Amino acid sequence: MRLKLTIAYDGVALAGWQSQPGGNTVQDFIESAIAATAKQAVRIHGSGRTDAGVHALGQIAHFDVPEGLTMNPFNWVPALNTKLPASIRVLACEEVAADFHARHSAQGKTYRYDLSLEPVLSPFRAGRAWHLPRQLDPFTLREMLACFEGRHDFEAFGARRGNETEETSYVRTITRVGLEEIAWGWRLRFTGDGFLYRMVRLMTGAAVQVAQGRLAVAEVAGLLDQAPGLPLGRCSHCAPADGLFLESVDYGRITR
Amino acid sequence: MRLKLTIAYDGVALAGWQSQPGGNTVQDFIESAIAATAKQAVRIHGSGRTDAGVHALGQIAHFDVPEGLTMNPFNWVPALNTKLPASIRVLACEEVAADFHARHSAQGKTYRYDLSLEPVLSPFRAGRAWHLPRQLDPFTLREMLACFEGRHDFEAFGARRGNETEETSYVRTITRVGLEEIAWGWRLRFTGDGFLYRMVRLMTGAAVQVAQGRLAVAEVAGLLDQAPGLPLGRCSHCAPADGLFLESVDYGRITR
Fold first, then answer.
1. In the prediction, which pLDDT does B228 show?
2. Chain A residues with CB inside 8 Å of B76's CB?
3. How close B7 comes to chain A (CA, Å)?
4. Quick check: A90 contacting B, CB < 8 Å?
């Protein structure tokens, strides 16, 4: 039986999603909790990695329940939560078809990025928002964000991970970028069919530079869809992990 | 020169307001930050204590700037924040009259208490709300909370602190108890001219018992204004520190 987990985590004190020798990652904690329940090692597969310090409201992972273990999917939620630190919570568990794959079946994702414009960053938002006490121009911010919408080559907004093979394509479609004013700042929301490594942080970093008057909209927009054969101009402004939340992963209709 | 500080803190990992030998209290951190700035020990006076795990959005304290130290009150804010952990922030600093006293001049306080009714407590609210996955009846809750409004003898809702002299009076006036539905639960708000030790947590604990059908409104209301000379019935339900926030302290008009 294959199960799909919906997971939320406060990344402030975590070393990211992916398992690593030092532990303290979401994958390590959840695999340990499953192993303690199933009495054997079980590998989980996430929809994608999140970096150290990044948060999730609806990360998705799947795993296969070992043969012979009969347990209602619903009961996995408390079974795992009692073994997890309070910074990681399994929100839901449901059975999915045997060919469901948290990463390969994903049709899209939504990320949110929170900017705090408070004079002093609230202690409740420390590590959970990017603190920008200097004002930014929301009209320019909106104009910049709109440029990211649509189907583009985002290679300039993708960081390289040392240990990974190159992407086969840097073309992604961002269906919507939202900008919402909240009580203490601005909330950016990016929905798309996929995101390169650090893409949301690089787009946000560049957009903030523009909204603070240090870069022109055209300079950043010019990094999209660059002509092949010429040296690639790269976005060099990366927003901190603090404000980034993986909100949800879209699988369309899941058939059981 | 006497300065008034407005302070916010996320109490999750703190041992409360009041200085103690083990440290890790808000008072200890702020006194250390002032001492590092003033190059001498300085005592601060808070509007009142908060217990370990309790939070503040607008705690107030005052201190006297040592003679010879000339620094614009406004500059104390960044000077202290750079020396404080991110869980404690000085939001404002202003000069006040020499007879202003954070505790004695206070005319009232507002506390908020957050109840989470989420099936699974969000990791972002761990330690910052009381998780009550079992439903509660908001009508009964509202009826119970209304009983606390007005001028009453709250002795049954005051815990005793071992090392303290008895209160001279247990009569307090609660001017307003608010109940607000929020996205993930209920927010209680108590405004009054003063609160006994643990009074908000005891009132909240009893109100939740009533809203969950385990106590009658009359049983709890009967603990108010008990006749003298008879053995005192005490409220024995104390809500956890997690959901309690000191929102603000009211000084009326402060004259400089």
1. 87
2. none
3. 10
4. yes
Split at pLDDT 50, 70, 90, the class of A222 is: very high
Interface confidence (ipTM) of the complex: 0.93
CA-based nearest residue to A181, from A131, A117, A237, A123: A117
- Find the mean pLDDT for residues B39-47: 96
CATH class of the region A2-96:
alpha beta
pLDDT of residue B164: 66
Structure tokens that stand for A9 in this block: 């985590």
Chain A residues with CB-CB distance to B88 below 8 A? 123
Q: Do A120 and B90 touch (CB under 8 A)?
A: yes
Q: What is the pTM of this model?
A: 0.94
CATH topology of domain B110-250: Alpha-Beta Plaits (3.30.70)
- Please judge whether B122 and A88 are an interchain contact, meaning their C-beta atoms are less than 8 angstroms apart: no
Question: Looking at the complex, does the CB of residue A88 fall below 8 Å from at least one CB of chain B?
Answer: yes
pLDDT surpassing 50 at residue A254: yes
Looking at chain B, the domain(s) classified CATH 3.30.70.660 span 110-250
pLDDT tens string B193-207: 999 999 999 999 999
Residues carrying CATH 3.30.70.580, chain A: 2-96
* A77, A123, A128 ranked by CB distance to B89: nearest: A123
